[in-house]
Write a structure and sequence with these properties.
The structure holds two protein chains of two kinds.
Chain A lengths: L4 E3 L2 E4 L5 E6 L4 E9 L5 E8 L2 E4 L8 E4 L6 E5 L8 E9 L9 E2 L3 E5 L1
Parallel strand pairs in A: 2-11
Antiparallel strand pairs in A: 1-3, 3-8, 4-5, 4-9, 5-6, 7-8, 9-10, 9-11
Chain B lengths: L2 E5 L2 E5 L4 E8 L5 E7 L5 E7 L5 E3 L5 E5 L4 E6 L8 E8 L1 E2 L2 E2 L2 E2 L3 E6 L1
Classes of the chains: A mainly beta, B mainly beta.
Chain lengths: 116, 115
C-alpha cells in the first residue's frame, strides 16, 4: 500500500507566478489535511478537506491560497501570485473515512517551495 | 484553544545517554497527544500516540512517553541514544471535535547525538 504521495518534491517559482502542489492520499483515505512548515518552525494547519468539500480552512491565508479535493484525482493546493514569504515546506496528510476517534494522520514527504 | 510548548529547540546528547524531550500542552478538552519525528528533507513519521487508557505509551525505535494530566506534560524519552536518532521531533495535540482531528504542533526540538 503506497503511502501519501506529493509532487513535485521541490518547486521553484518567481514572484508573481502560480504554484500548484498535489497530494494523493493513501488508498482508501478520503480525508486530507494540508500543513505549512516555515523555516525553523513547526507545522501549522492550513485546511482540511473531504472529497469535494472544504471542511475547515481556518488556517488558510485569506488571499491567494485555495485548496480542492475533487471526486477524482489528487488534492491540489494552489498559491497564486507567490511572494517570498510563501517559501516553505507544504505537507499533506491523509486519514481514513471510518477512522477511530484518535484518527491518525499519515504524512507525505512534502513539497518544498522556493520563491525567488 | 489548544497549544503545545516544546522546551528546548536544540538538545544534544552523547551516544548511549538518556534522551529526554519535553512537551507541555494546553487543552480545554481531553487531549490526544502525538510525537512525530522528521528526518532531513523528509515527511513526518509517527513515533507514538496517547488517546485514552494507559498513560505510559511505547512507540517505535525504543521511544516512550508518559501522559501526566496534573502536569499537562507528555515528555518523550529513550534510555539510550543512537546516532540514527538525530532528527527533529515534534509534539502535537488534537481533539476529535466536529468529527475530525486537527493537529496543533509545537515548534520542534532538534536532537543531535554525538559519539
Amino acid at each position: 500500500n503506497a503511502g501519501v504521495m506529493q509532487n513535485p518534491r521541490h518547486l521553484v517559482r518567481r514572484r508573481g507566478q502560480e504554484a500548484r502542489l498535489r497530494c494523493s492520499p493513501m488508498k482508501g483515505h478520503s480525508h486530507v489535511y494540508w500543513y505549512r512548515q516555515l523555516p525553523e518552525e513547526g507545522l501549522k494547519f492550513m485546511v482540511y478537506l473531504q472529497k469535494e468539500n472544504i471542511i475547515d480552512e481556518s488556517g488558510m491565508p485569506k488571499e491567494r491560497f485555495s485548496a480542492e479535493f475533487p471526486k477524482e484525482g489528487p488534492s491540489i493546493l494552489r498559491i497564486q501570485q507567490v511572494v517570498r514569504g510563501d517559501s516553505a515546506a507544504y505537507f499533506c496528510a491523509s486519514s481514513p473515512r471510518d477512522s477511530p476517534t484518535y484518527n491518525e494522520q499519515f504524512f507525505g514527504p512534502g513539497t518544498r517551495l522556493t520563491v525567488l | 484553544a489548544q497549544s503545545v510548548t516544546q522546551l528546548g529547540s536544540h538538545v544534544s546528547v552523547s551516544e548511549g545517554a538518556l534522551v529526554l524531550l519535553r512537551c507541555n500542552y494546553s487543552s480545554s478538552v481531553p487531549p490526544y497527544l502525538f510525537w512525530y519525528v522528521q528526518y532531513p528533507n523528509q515527511g513526518l513519521q509517527l513515533l507514538l500516540k496517547y488517546t485514552t487508557g494507559a498513560t505510559l505509551v511505547k512507540g517505535i525505535n525504543g521511544f516512550e512517553a508518559e501522559f501526566k494530566k496534573s502536569e499537562t506534560s507528555f515528555h518523550l524519552t529513550k534510555p539510550s541514544a543512537h546516532m540514527s536518532d538525530a532528527a527533529e521531533y515534534f509534539c502535537a495535540v488534537s481533539s476529535f471535535s466536529g468529527g475530525y482531528n486537527k493537529l496543533i504542533f509545537g515548534a520542534g526540538t532538534r536532537l543531535a547525538v554525538h559519539p
